[in-house]
Amino acid sequence: MLFFVGFLKNMKHFWRCLMNNTFQQITVVVQGPVQNYQGRTHHEEGITQRCLDSIRTHLPGSKVILSTWPDQDLTGLDYDQLIISKDPGQNQDGFCHVNYQRQVLSTQAGLDAVTTPYAVKLRSDNFLTGNQFVTIQQQFTKTELNQQIFSEKVVVNSNLFRRSSHGHRVIMSPSDFFYYGRTDDLKLIWQQPEFNHHDFSQQLIQQAQKVAGTPFALEAEQTYCQIWLKNIARDNTKLLKHRFDINHHDIVIWERFLASNIIIADPQTMGLGLRKISQRKLKRANEYSHIDWLKLYKQYCDNTVTININKDQRHLELRRFFKLPLSKLTFKLKNRVPN
């Protein structure tokens, strides 16, 4: 019995040392404001301190970079490196979401300082509850022939990763909360030139102006994704005229990209904590779940994968069955698709 107890203690110590060594290969870039400012008052008190403390708890040995703006209250914040960038202010280009350049710039500045092979991009108003995403990232390594863009898959959380909107299928609408993968792959996503320097920027602006202020305008996440994906996969990336400007072929291209390059993971099982305004008792019917992604991975990359449909997924699919057609019909009756 004593031998067995000693064996368990030694294995626990070995596992802790192994994981700490793994975590030393990771840098966490925490990006964004650390306090509220005029026009943005929904941050929870102390959320960035909670974010940074959670990294120390769940990724011991990792490096923490805080990439933020001038005049922030940094009292009591625990980080290894601080990067202060000049605030570019809100976007005025007529296409990107108002805080697009803020998010891109603070993420770029943080990733520029990363020297480890792996990195996390984490918003300053979220936090970690575990480190399961490290293991998840290595679990689904197969890809479809000629579909791989990243050197390894990038883990993105399912919260606000939209699969549909108003009952219609949509593409290129991933969440911007959390990204984990090879540092070079995250740089492919976030190390972009300024929006107006893209040769397709004026076309996107002109298209956006036609649907500005309507329910057909792109989601903020669609603007982000369309820009970085067009930048790294030009030939396979469509410039959307509006939120629902897609056909079945476009959906297939998007799904094949997801299966070979992204892992969509649910926050509660990957180790991501959400700010209060993002929490829901039930998963939104319009979001991807991890099981939704697993079905794509099985279809395009590895047909040997076993998928266990749990109770939550069954409830999600049941709500979709009733809710989405009704939502689509209601939207169609109220709105006419733009030319």
Please tell me about this protein's structure.
This protein has helices at 2-23, 47-58, 100-112, 132-136, 183-190, 201-211, 220-232, 248-261, 267-270, 290-300, 311-334, and strands at 26-31, 63-68, 81-84, 118-123, 127-128, 154-157, 164-165, 168-169, 178-182, 262-265, 272-273. It is α/β, with parallel strands linked by helices and 339 residues long. The strands form 3 sheets. The protein has a 7-stranded mixed β-sheet with strand order 3-2-1-4-9-6-10. It has one domain (9-334): Spore Coat Polysaccharide Biosynthesis Protein SpsA, Chain A (Alpha-Beta Complex). Helix 3 packs antiparallel against helix 5 (183-190) and helix 8 crosses helix 10 (290-300). The longest helix has 24 residues, at 311-334. It has 11 helices and 11 strands. A hairpin with a 2-residue loop joins strand 7 and strand 8. This is LPS biosynthesis protein WavE. InterPro entries: WavE.
Quick rundown:
The chain has 339 residues and is α/β, with parallel strands linked by helices. Helix content is 40%, strand content 13%.
If you average the pLDDT, what whole number results?
90
**Rg from C-alpha positions?**
21 Å
> Which architecture does the CATH hierarchy give at level 2?
Alpha-Beta Complex
**The first-level CATH class name:** Alpha Beta
Uncertain regions: pLDDT < 50 for 5+ in a row? none
Report how far apart the termini are.
75 Å
Q: What is the number of helical segments per DSSP (H or I, 4+ residues)?
A: 11
* Largest sheet: number of strands, sense, barrel closure: 7 strands, mixed
Category from helices, strands and their pairing: alpha/beta
Compute the number of strand runs.
11
Fraction of residues in helix: 40-55%
Count of discrete domains: 1
Order of helices and strands: HEHEEHEEHEEEEHHHHEHEHH
Please state how the strands of the largest beta sheet are arranged side by side.
3-2-1-4-9-6-10
Strand content: 5-15%
